User: Fold these one by one.
Assistant:
Number 1:
Amino acid sequence: MNSPDLQTVAIDLADRSYSIAIRGSLFDNPLSYVELPGAHSALIVTNAVVGPLYAERLQKALAPRYAQVVTVVLPDGETFKTWESLNLIFDALLSHGCDRKTVLFALGGGVVGDMTGFAAASYMRGVPFVQVPTTLLAQVDSSVGGKTAINHPLGKNMIGAFYQPLKVICDLDTLKTLPQRELSAGLAEVIKYGPIADMDFLAWIEAHMDAILAREPAALAHIVRRSCEIKAWVVGQDERESGLRAILNFGHTFGHAIEAGLGYGQWLHGEAVGCGMVMAAQLSLRLGLVDVFFVNRLTHLIQQAGLPVKGPRLRPQDNAGRYLELMRLDKKSEAGEIKFVLIDGPGRACLQAAPDDLVRKVIDQCCVD
Ligand code: NAD
Ligand code: GLY
């Protein structure tokens, strides 16, 4: 199959607008970076898995533009999305005399991207940064839209900032080295866009799941582009989540409880979101917002993507109570009342509270020992 042509998706945010470039052979091509502002230094932030695969090639691509290109390698994984890792970025910036024009490059998945963005938002009160996402999840979701954060032991992504990148470079070739489990995790965020915004896209994913799992370039190009378009449409209307943007958190309220309750890194973020979408769909069903055929269709697709559809028990007794405790810490909660993203018709989402007894029934039904 021929490799797909370059595609670009625009994020329209007035003076914070930028573009997402999507194709193979992009991240190590100096032409990808020509329109970035000039600076003396660039700092590549990566991790111990992605660094050895790609950092040297990015370093070479940036060398013509920056007199100094430094690479900082963070420990890998969600458990390291912490203050300590963030400080390693500040240590590197300060020890290399990086000034306020220094451009940061996030080379990795969502963990590296979220931490690099937060470091860029706060170093010298804000320096430019570029996202070079190397997981499917990061290409279709986390690198776009400017949410940056680290975790707190009591809650996920609790400390962070809205801060937009200058550009996003989605190099589809980097997905070739991604473990299959990580590809499936990324598919959770791809599938998400169907029920909340575009049922035609959901049907397309259903029809092309084999090609996607086989990483056919045209299939990957399509899901990355369409996901970015939908995210751009949402973020363009509600950058700081005062309303609409919350729909992008479909499945995340239950999912974040799974991640925090089991301990970060036990389940992948995308796995928790996949299972969380099943729970949120079941809750929508119990509230009379969707029918059982819709819930079964979505559950089947999530399973087809290689994702869990049954949640873990977070403690032996009163498991549902533990989920509720964790979900009350969700960023969408108001005065301790949990707000769920629910589906109120195929392709349409809403934010609403639900009675605890219904939520408990859903959790009891959806969890296994
Ligand atoms: P991740 O960053 O941990 O990457 C997954 C794993 O794949 C890691 O081990 C990583 O080292 C490895 N990896 C990355 N690229 C690779 C490649 N090309 N080849 C081989 N291995 C590779 O996880 P993720 O799923 O990318 O991101 C999850 C994070 O994103 C979570 O912390 C979540 O909260 C965050 N997130 C943020 C947003 C947002 O809007 N900012 C949205 C969704 C998720
Ligand atoms: N991934 C959720 C958001 O960007 O709002």
Number 2:
Amino acid sequence: MKLCDKLQNIQPSPTLAVNAKAAELRAQGADIISFGVGEPDFDTPAHVRQAGIDAINQGFTRYTPVDGIPELKKAIADKFKRDNGLDYALDEIIVNCGGKHSGYLVMQALLNPGDEVIVPAPYWVSYPPMVILAGGTPVIVPTREEDEFKLNPADLKAAINSKTRALILNSPSNPTGSVYTAEELKPLAEMCAEAGVLIVSDEIYECMVFDGLKFTATASLSEKVFQHTVTLNGVSKTYAMTGWRIGYMAGPKDLIKACNKIQSQSTSNPCSISQKAAVAALSGPQDEVGRMCAEFVKRRDYIMERLLAIPQVTCPRPRGAFYAMPNFSAYFGKKVGGKVINGSVDLSGFLLEEGHIATVAGAAFGEDTCIRLSFATSMEKITEGLNRLEAALKKLS
Ligand code: GLU
């Protein structure tokens, strides 16, 4: 069948593909340890699950307003006020079918053919496809490992031109774990605001910040930056609710209204039951969030110790989220059974076949020197997975 041209330029999500591949191998009986997809391995907190069950039992199973129930939008507004000091009116907020959907809607609402969106690399796998699906052009701006893969203001300045409509920022970052300080964010955000470029600030990993670092919401930097920022967030990572599919965003009223229009003609409202659960997550006790975060820190410390003990591997210390992005380029050019490891895709494939560990090739994030390891899995599995990683690497010569 003849399909639309823009699909020629995108692949299915590589993170979800790794997940599917690991599941397929497991179904065939293989013992696979997954450092692949980024999804907390904890259960959704009990009071949140109960809110979902109550919603079903109370018959809360019909259409809701397209942009989310007022009760949830109010809980989101309260969260922005409480955690970020931000004031959003309810018509500046929309609830979507997951954080990925929020980003997709923004691009659909914003872009005309030929419009450009700046995407610092390493980037989350879905950002460039979201831009392409909306008819825009992603402009990839590489960052440096020695800068902890954070965007440099001079590089941003060089990338902005009259076609630039948006910059996508993600702090804490998937895939690097980098966290921008307020001082680092400010020049980038102010430059965008000055140039009339929308800052799409994906803050989905907001609650996972380590080492006493303080999370800064981009929109909180100044009134002018606030006016030029749309903040993306959701309950998936913070409350271990990936399957419930609730994301949300807040930003300029006309942008939110446009996203609402697109949502009304595509998905309609996000799942009614999940919305009730999200109210419980955002408004209820937050102690499990802290517990999960403390566990991620332990895993981060362990994984870093092990990775840095591997000869010639370097890795900026993740300061947030639950990903490490080690540089394995010293292993490129080595061989196994006559086959040369030519880059991150080959290395990731070799680790899956030889070591039975699932990772995501850095190439999927625009950084071929690295592979991404998600540490959203138990300490026991991380330990065994790293043993397998070391053993597999020893087979390369
Ligand atoms: N954000 C997660 C990851 O990068 C979830 C999978 C996805 O939607 O890409 O692994």
Number 3:
Amino acid sequence: MTAKIIDGRAIATQIRTDLQQKILLLSTKPKLAIILVGNDDSSLIYVRNKQKAAAQIGMKTQLYHLEENTKETDLLQLIRQCNDDSSVNGIIVQLPLPEHINTNRVINAISPLKDVDGFNPYNTGMLQNNEKPYFIAATPLGIMTLIESVCSDLCGKNVVIIGASLIVGRPLATLLLNQECTVTITHIHTRDIKELTRKADILVAACGVAGLVKNDWIKTDSILIDVGINREKGKICGDIDFESVAASAAAITPVPGGVGPMTIAMLLQNTVDAYFLQHNL
Ligand code: GUN
């Protein structure tokens, strides 16, 4: 075992403590509206964790838990109401949504100024243009902080991201490109994937396949970021086979305790930023 463990839990705890101190000084408290449609098991857990983490730092949350069969028009109406409510600073709609609802139309309806998930096309477009968006998606933002904790100069690094999702792979690729990395995104149709991953100075696995990345997938002394949260035989494990790669990598994020805690910390950070933005502070 030579790889340095990148302790996402410790970094996230520090961020949350700093946010708590900031909120203590405010006369009114930042508020996050969380919209959940239906009863997806993972979404229920994620939403509960977000509410708990917000409460711990003195942030308010308002949960709108809607029925699975909610009409899209009613959901859009609720989003407009939250957009217009000056006591609400941030709005998130937990994904995935039920199939009868058009996710893009819903995300498009969130005011870019309250879009603390950073999914609205205004915010993703600004990121693409290498301009400053109001908000950047929490998981990619958290991953950038983790990478920067072990790599001070990203310029020219070869990065491979396994997984082209809208929530992780694509925005992360843009963030890294904006930092002058050479970025490859792989997906289900990518050929000879190992040929690509073996050249990666930084490898990010975000595909949701337990233990996919083994030692023969990686470059010696590379930085490995594991975004996977897979449940196997009652245990949580990542997309990277930790035991297999630990002797060859320079640094690796554990699962749990790596990327996961950073995602919530960054959502809280975005919501505090939204409060300051809306109060012209
Ligand atoms: N589902 C999985 N990840 C996320 C996320 O970061 N935000 C929202 N809203 N839904 C998700």
Number 4:
Amino acid sequence: MTRAGGAARGTRIETDVLVLGSGIAGLTYAIKAARHGRVTVLTKKEDTEANTNYAQGGIAAVMDPSDSFAAHIADTLEAGAGLCDRRAVALLVESGPDRVRELIEYGVRFTYQRGEPGRLSLAREGGHSARRIVRADDLTGRAIERGLLDAAARASVKIHEHYFALDLWLDRSGPLPRCVGVLAVDRETGEDVAVSANVTFLATGGCGQVYRFTTNPGIATGDGIAMAFRAGAPVANLEFVQFHPTALYPVEPRPFLISEAVRGEGAILRDAEGRAFMAGYHPLADLAPRDVVARAIDAEMRRAGTDHVWLDTSPIAPDHFAERFPNILETCRSRGLDPPTAPLPVVPAAHYMCGGVVTDLDARTGVAGLLAAGEVACTGVHGANRLASNSLLEAVVFADRAARATPDMVATPRSGADPPPPPRRSGSPTDLDGLRRRIREILWTGAGIVRDDAGLAAAEAQLAELVPRVPTNPRTPEAAEVANLLLVGRLIVRSAILRKESRGLHFSRSHPDSDPTFLHDTIIRPCEGKEPLP
Ligand code: FAD
Ligand code: SIN
């Protein structure tokens, strides 16, 4: 680390490979890239604070002889409602078992069949035609995060916690801009940091925080999507936001997910009168696809004027519940709830972004020098809807692809240029908390579980009104997050407006049917130097 002089005051870090984010995608890539050079990871909070750490259900892969690649591919394509990229899906599924075995080699401790040490305990989730969910009790994400952090330490990966990436650093001296690192801020000292690298790997995760109610932790503010878009990378399919049906109510201040696996083990959704309502919506009742269940709960809450429904866990034997869901049991008890005897109040909440920064099969984005994988990316795997537990798999598979593309990129000479001077601090103070709340409310109301033309148009106008109030070129993490939430929120609404049909996760009352005219991705390309959105 050196002190930079001149216009670029602050700290300067030089590295071969720069990774933004310490979730499953960032760490998997970092461990593999360490074979090709020095790797530096920046992460905006503690190293464990990532969506990955909260994953419960597990990671999908064909690990049982009675299962097949063809079946996993078919299930993924079925969920994706016509929009999956078949090559990406085949790659995802066929490399899945190797990537899971690699996680085990890194030290991730999955759950095995009792009395059969070599046999993974595989769960089944909605939309999967076989038992193929590899899990670590109901704390799969935490086990993966810990295993990967240990493996990253062994691989001498340098992780800087509390370093917030503000924007990608672009070299504009050639015909096309090239990413040569990142401009960041050290949250503990407030100092500007410029990191220059031959390769930058974006693994900043999703954007659940753009919605008022979300299962995602506070880090999920869409920073990577916003940074890549500002740098010139196209984004796609941002209208496909997955709402998980069962977040514990109330969702705020700390969201907690009641895994779909709880319904998989027999729990039943009921309204305030105790009526089991899912059979009226889908032949699979409580095990219907996630989007159908979320919309059904939304409809029931509107009909009854309630702010949650109930998850009756009493069909699950107490001993089995305690063994299968130790973390859910402990958290519920800490909130004064007593499953499986007493029902749990639950509500749908924004959970997963299927779209993101457009990447090819080697994780390359539309900006030279910039790779991306994990929830920030749109690889084509999920199409219009994600199959449960395919996202952790997607992250490891495409992080591995990116690592294979890395040696050539590391060989590219690094820019010797000084980073641009940090932007001036904006003059007038802004109510950042108020703006953040307003953006999240607008998205929840106008671009939530069920949409329509009027609501989307209103949301677009309301978000546009906020643009002059949000700092341009923010220098603090708090201001940058609000700017990123606003940009990502506007991109989600624009994408939803462009899709005048219903497909997968995007359901519009104004266009309730699917329309083959829209059997394509919704791609938004930034226009350099111009306001990108109307
Ligand atoms: P993340 O794990 O979110 O990591 C992003 C990283 O980027 C974090 O370290 C963050 O701090 C960092 N970062 C972000 N912005 C910046 C910035 N500006 N500067 C520096 N660092 C930054 N998927 C499954 O497949 N199976 C499941 O069972 C499952 N359960 C889930 C349960 C919950 C409650 C949630 C929220 C999600 C679940 N998912 C599940 C989805 C899955 O966890 C995520 O899609 C996946 O973990 C994303 O991994 P990632 O590495 O892309 O991003
Ligand atoms: C869950 O455990 O219900 C979440 C699984 C997922 O998001 O894939």
